[in-house]
Amino acid sequence: MNLTGKRVIVTGGSDGIGRHICLKLADQGCAIAIVGRNQARLDAVVAECKARGAAEARAYAADLTDAAAIEQAAAAMLDDFGGIDILINNAGIWHKAGPLDSIDADMLVATVQTNLTALMQLTRHVLPVLRQQEEAAILNVASKSGVVAQAGQSVYSATKYGVRGFTDVLKVDEAETGVRVAGLYQSGTNTGMFAKADEDVPNHIFTEPDDLADVVVFMLSRPPKLWMHEVRVEL
Question: Deepest of 126, 167, 190, 209, by most Cβ within 10 A of its Cβ?
């Protein structure tokens, strides 16, 4: 896929992996709809993307635990950009690792809604438009936790295994429509995700988000006869 001019939605684009994906797509000349919760950080990423050559960049502040907000954001993005070519579901949160009964009840719900339910809801809203495009793709940035069971990650892993199952079925469902579907399963990444959950981890040994964003661009920019349905990135 030639990414120049492609209209891309990136969730969780205000920081971390999502921000770096937006910047790399800007380098390719994409038009980027950036979804996140913090308006100030979103605006900063929009400015960075425009400075790096994005065909367009716009911010959409939305609470991904709110189904109505997701629907409104989807409608606004499709209207503002006149359609969409690529959906990158990247948004996610982390709960502090520990036994299931140590995970706060509200955090359990927020993790499932943000990491899995919102991803499915947004995909559902934009899928009919993706099917209308000559070239279209959905890339779900999941986690190694959707492939390997790891202690203390019961809820987080449940969401990521869910993303993997959703991705695999969507790939089969859309095989005849021209919408290409892929999952990216990365190990720990050097972002602020863990710190937000008050988790002390050795971030410095993890994959750099800028490098992971390069992988995303590589996956999306393969020739028409070559598509990577699943990529795993290990430390």
Answer: 167
